[in-house]
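Lecture 7, part B: from sequences to assemblies.

Below are the input chains for today's worked example.
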Amino acid sequence: MMSHDQLLDLLRRHPNQYVSGAMMSEELNVSRTAVWKQIRKLEGAGYEIEASTRLGYRLVYSPDAISSEELTEARSSQRFGQSVHYYEQVKSTQDAARELAEAGAPEGTLVLAEEQTGGRGRMGRGWVSPQGKGIWMSMVMRPHVPIHCAPQLTLLTAVALCRSLRRLTVLPIGIKWPNDLLIHGKKISGILLESAAEDERLKYIVAGVGISVNLSERDYPEELLTKATSLRIEAGGAFSRSAIVKDFLAEWETLYDLFLQEGFSAIAALWESLSVSIGQKVRLITPQGELEGVPVGLEESGAIRVERADGSIVTIFSAEMGEPLSRS
Amino acid sequence: MMSHDQLLDLLRRHPNQYVSGAMMSEELNVSRTAVWKQIRKLEGAGYEIEASTRLGYRLVYSPDAISSEELTEARSSQRFGQSVHYYEQVKSTQDAARELAEAGAPEGTLVLAEEQTGGRGRMGRGWVSPQGKGIWMSMVMRPHVPIHCAPQLTLLTAVALCRSLRRLTVLPIGIKWPNDLLIHGKKISGILLESAAEDERLKYIVAGVGISVNLSERDYPEELLTKATSLRIEAGGAFSRSAIVKDFLAEWETLYDLFLQEGFSAIAALWESLSVSIGQKVRLITPQGELEGVPVGLEESGAIRVERADGSIVTIFSAEMGEPLSRS
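Predicted structure of the full complex, as C-alpha cells:
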C-alpha cells in the first residue's frame, strides 16, 4: 500500500514541475489507478494538483496547518483565543461555540475548524468552507453592554478584520455595510454575530468569522464566482492562515477594549474610513420595503444614514444592501 | 384503596367546615394515617387544607384548571396563544418554548405549565412556581424589528400584563422599571424576555411571564414574604387563571400590534402612567457602578432617564433598581 505521504513527497521533490503518471506508478510500485485515487484524496484534504493527460501531475498548492498549539503559544496576556477548540471537521463552528457559550465558556473561547460541513452565513444561507483553505472560526464574547450595542460589535468585528487583512495582504479591502469584506466588489469574508439577551442585557455573543484565504476558483460553484473571491485569487499567492488568525485576534481585542473603554465613536470613524458603501447609490431591502439612496454615514447606534433622491435622510437599522447602482 | 376523589368529595360536602379525622376514617373505611397521606397528596396538587388537631380538616382552596381546550376555544382571529403546549409539569416553560422557537414554531406559540420544577427568573435566579396556583407561561414572538427594540417589548409586556390584571382584580398594581409588577411594594409577577439575534436582526424572542395568582403565604419561603405576594393574598380571594390568561393574551396582542404599526411612543406613555418608579428616589446598580437618583421618564429606546442630586440627567439602559429610598 502506498500512503498519502509517499505520493506527496514525490510531488514535492519536483516543485512546479509535472510528474508523469507512468513515472509515479513505477517509482511507488502501484497501479496508475491507485495513483489517481491518492491524488483525489490529497485534493479532498486541501491540496491542489494540476492534472494534464499529456504531462502528468503538478502540485500547485499545499494547505498550511492551523494548529491549536501554534495559536496558543506565548499569548498569556491576550483574552481572545486564550482557549482554542480545534476541529479537523465540524458541522458549523458557530453551533459548536454556541454550545460552549451556553455551558458557560469564558470570553475569548475560540472554535476553529479546518472544514465545515454545514457552515452558515447570514439569514440561514450556506457558506463555502472547504478543508484546509480558509479560516472558519467562532468566538464567545461576553461584553457587559446593553443589547443595543450588539450591532456596534458587528461593525467593530468588520473593522478589525479589514485592518488586519489590509496590513497582511496589502490588498484593497473595503467594508460593505454592515459587515461584508470586499475586494473589487467581490466578497472575501463573512461575519455573523449571534446574540443571546435577557431583557436589556446581552448574555453572550457568538461571533462567527469566515475568511476565504487560499481558496482557488475551483473551490467555488460557478454561479458564485462573480460575487466571491479569496485572498489567494486576488494576490496571486497563498497566505499563512495561522498568521492571519493571530494578527486578527490581536487587532480585534485591541479595538474591543477601546470600545469598552471609550464607546463606539472611534470605531464608527474607522468603519467609515474603510467602508466602500458610503457615497455609493444602492438599493436597500428592509423589512418595511425597498428604497434607493446614498449611504452618508453611521449613526452612534450602528445604523446607517441614507440620503434619498429628494434630499431626505432615513436611518436604516436592518437591511440587505444590493450592488452599487450607476448614479442616475 | 381510597382515591383522592373520595376524600375531596367528602371535604367538599362540608364547605368551610372542619371534618374530623375520625369521621373521615370511618366514612371512607381507611386508617387515619391513610387519610393524612391523602391530605398531603392533595396539598401537593395545589389544594389547601387547614388541619387542626382538635377539629380535623377543612378545605380552604381548590386549584382551578387551565386547560388547553378552554384557551383555544373561539380564538380564530387571535395569534397569541393560537397554538398551546400545555404541561402538567415542566422544568421551565422558558426552556420548552425556546426549543420550539429554535425548531421554527410560529409567533404566538404558547407554553403553559401547571408546575415548574426549575422556573427561572432574571439573571439565573429561581422562581417559585408551585402546582395549580400560578400562571407560568412562555410565548414565542417573531417581530420584524431591529435588535434595539427588544427592551421596548419587555416594557410593552409589562404594560399589557399590568392593564389586564388591574382590569380583572381592581388591585393597585404598578410597574417597577423595567418589568416587575408590584402591589404595595411587593412583587406579584415576573417577566423575562430572552432574545436571539443575528447581527442587527431579531430572530425570535421567548417571553416568559410568571403570575402569582392564587398562591398563599405558605407557598413562599419566609424570607420572600416581605418581597413577594399574590393576587389572592392581596384581594382576599382566588381568581380564575384561565380568565387571566385569556384577557392578558388579548391585551398583549393588541398593544403589540399597536407597537408594530405606530412605534413605541404610545406604549412608553402607558408605561409611564402605570409606573411606580417615576418620581421615587432609588439606588441603581449598573454594570458601570452604583448611582442614586430619581427616574423621570422613559427614552424612546426603552432606557430610563434618571435625575441625580446635582440636577444632571443620566440615561440608564440596564440596571438592578433597589427599593425606594426616603427622600433626603
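Note for the exam: The first strand of chain A starts at residue 48 and ends at 52. Keep this in mind when comparing with the next example.
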